[in-house]
Amino acid sequence: MKALKNPALALICLAILGFGLDFGVNAYIKLILLFATVNCLLSMSLNLVNGYTGQFSLGHAGFMAIGAYFSAYASTKWGFLPESMQLVQSFIFVIGAGLAAAVAGFLVGLPSLRLKGDYLAIVTLGFGEIIRVALLNMDFVGGPRGLSGIPSFGTFPFAFMFASVWLVICFFTIWRVMHSSHGRGFLSVREDEIAAEAMGINTTRMKVKAFVLSSFFAGVAGALFAHFTNFINPSSFTFLQSVNAVIMVVLGGMGSMTGSIVAAVIITVLPEALRPLQELTGVDLRMVIYSLALILMMILRPKGLFGDLEISDVWRKYVRRSA
Amino acid sequence: MQDFVQHLINGVSLGSIYALIALGYTMVYGILKMINFAHSDVYMVGAFAAYYFARWLGIENNPGFSTLLTLIVITMICCSLLGLVIERLAYRPLRNSPKLNVLITAIGVSLFLQYSGQVVFGADPKVFPEVMKDFVIFSIGVVEIRSFDVTVLGVGIVAMLGLQFLLFKTKIGRAMRAVSANPMVASLMGVNPDRIIAFTFIVGSSLAGVGSVLVGMKYPKIDPLMGMMIGMKAFVAAVLGGIGNVGGAVLGAMIMGLSEEMVVAYLSSTYRDALAFGILIVILIFKPAGLLGKYSVEKV
Q1: DSSP string of A57-71?
Q2: Which segments cross the bilayer (chain B) (predicted)?
Q3: Residues A65, A131: contact at Cβ < 8 Å?
Q4: CA distance B180 to B175
Q5: Are the C-beta atoms of residues A311 and A258 closer than 8 Å to each other?
């Protein structure tokens, strides 16, 4: 549990995990693990907007797409460092991808965050779709054919380390922000917008801030995704991807960082874990079960796995007490 | 100019299909304040119900008005049953939970219908039975008025007028409006909100059923994911006109159908999906409650 408070410790834990997993698991599981990190980034960043700030965004895939395309295009066209410095260069491009997504987040957020609830959801959904259609119509990024030949980060341990660095950056950035006055501002917007405004908080500004930070990490997630798969096209970033991100946040519990991580891992692993069932029955029941689980979850445990608690709180509350 | 008139007719025909689906969204939103994402999949199931019933009854190669009418009635029944079941099993247990949960459930139901549709009906597209012959009724110059367009518009208008009558001239319509305004007070007045909500789902879903037969007739290729895009656009149409407002839904759907047809005709067909959302965003930013919606300021 200490790793949740100390970035260096968290990174070391993840590094050990990465190098340990390099032996013993096959390429298929490795790819799933890498996707799990992408999904963790997505759900943590969306949690900032949906969970902490209480604004319902359904356009996360759009920002992910911008990040993915930026990094993919840059690393195939703008490489400026020698081959040996590949990882450093990738790091710079991933930051660039995040910034590009953040700018897009600002441009989208500024007009749309004046809306509330379902309207905001539908407008962000709209922006997400518009970004996708725009990419579909841009010839220099391949249009519907997409971009291929995106360089990867080397072998699995390096790719996993690279992703872990971003996981740690994302986790602690959001964690520290949530424990600063900005974070209190975000929470106050979620709890009661009118009261927050009466207390002198510029609510629109708070929402835009949360949105921009969230878009930044969505862009980073997209960039990692592009480098892991080596190929992207606009249909990787549909409405379903945004829905997936929302599902992860809600499943983990709105406003729980560790909850989002756990949920992201579950959501990534579950469809793969159900694969044997498909071989058994001969029909693809995975997504049927997945969607059914989602409905049941909402009815039986509406607050998600952790509610707004962190895994350390849950630990303290239930495990320690019973011991 | 003649081209333009032709596009205008096509646009209106497309718009009336959107309107039928948009009405379902707007009614559910008006009464429950939730986006029923599963609505577009009820529509999909309706198309498949029509397909299978037509084959079962042996009328798939028997185009004519009676075939159309039979299929519409059957599909309405199937869709309303499905809508009722969805409401009872998925939405009613969540009546008092936060909005986001209801929304996620709706998305879950939608995914469930799509994927089980792929399992049950198969993922490959099917050819919808020919329920009606497409012929030119009359033409002015090169502008052609086709039987499909007339049917779509005709059925659409009948359905909308029926709905208008139901909402404003009958007792249950009054109850529906009462529940929409304030469920608590409505229940104090002796209206059973649960029953009214179930009824709303029946009406909305059966309108989706009508829409599915009309779309199947006009674009005879159906697959389990057919509802996604058309549902999204119909929903946008409903928001555009002011959600919760019947006239607004029709107006928004017409704007949507016309502008889509014009964009495909004069710009590029790849932009047609972005256009819907583009219009929506512009409208919502300048008129947050939609074209005909009433904007209410939140008071403390």
Answers
A1: ---HHHHHHHHHHHH
A2: 12-30, 42-59, 65-86, 98-115, 135-163, 197-215, 235-255, 275-293
A3: yes
A4: 8
A5: yes
CA distance B257 to B237: 9
Helix H or strand E segment including B140: strand B136-140
**Count of C-beta atoms within a 10 Å radius of residue B282:** 12
- The size of chain A, in residues, is 323
**CB–CB contact A299 B268 (8 Å):** no
Eight-class DSSP state of A231: E
Residue A323 in this model has a pLDDT that exceeds 60: no
**Residue ranges of B 90-109 with Cβ closer than 8 A to chain A:** 90, 93-94, 97-105, 107-109
CA distance A72 to A85: 17
Q: B234: which 2 tokens? A: 């119909």
Query: What sign results for the dihedral spanned by CA atoms B141, B146, B149, B153?
Result: positive
What phi-psi label fits residue A255: left (phi over 0), alpha (psi between -120 and 50 degrees) or beta? Answer: left
Angstrom distance (rounded) from CA B71 to CA A152:
54
User: Does B1-286 carry CATH code 1.10.3470?
Assistant: yes
Question: What's this model's pTM, rounded to 2 decimal places?
Answer: 0.85
What span, in angstroms and rounded, lies between the C-alpha atoms of B100 and A247?
10
C-alpha B193/C-alpha B183 separation (Å) is: 6
**Does residue A320 carry a pLDDT above 70?**
no
Whether A312 shows a pLDDT value over 80: the answer reads: no
Q: How many angstroms separate the CA atoms of B292 and B298, rounded?
A: 19
Q: CB of B240 within 8 Å of any CB in chain A?
A: no
B137 φ, ψ (degrees, to nearest 5): -75, -55
Contact yes or no for B105 and A298 at CB 8 A: yes
Paired tokens of B115: 């994927």
Instruction: For residues A124 and A118, give the distance between their C-alpha atoms in angstroms, rounded to a whole number.
Output: 10
Compute the distance between CA of residue B259 and CA of residue B266 in angstroms, rounded to an integer.
Answer: 10
DSSP line for B182-196:
-HHHHHHTT--HHHH
Position A46 confidence tier, pLDDT thresholds 50, 70, 90: very high
Q: CB-based burial of residue B127 (10 Å sphere; 0-12 exposed, 13-18 middle, 19+ buried)?
A: exposed
Residue B272 in this model has a pLDDT that exceeds 80: no
Of B158 and A320, more confident:
B158
Q: What CA–CA distance (Å, rounded) separates B10 from B17?
A: 11
Measured CA distances, A304 to A55, A95, A210, A307, B48 (Å): 17, 32, 22, 5, 35
Q: Burial code of B55-87, b = ≥16 C-beta within 10 A, e = fewer?
A: eeeebbeebeeebbebbbebbbbbbbbbbeebb
Give the span between the Cα atoms of A232 and A151, in whole angstroms. Answer: 12
ipTM above 0.90, yes or no: no
In three-state secondary structure terms, B137 is: strand
Residue of B110, B243, B260, B284 to mutate for A, most A C-beta atoms under 10 A: B284
Look up residue A192 and give its amino acid.
D
Sorting pLDDT into bands at 50, 70 and 90, what band is A27?
confident
> Strand pairing partners for B139?
B144
Taking an 8 Å cut-off on Cβ atoms, the answer to whether B274 and A133 are in contact is yes
Report CA Rg, chain A: 19
Tell me how far apart the alpha carbons of residues B209 and B80 are, in angstroms, rounded to a whole number: 8
Amino acid occupying residue A45: S
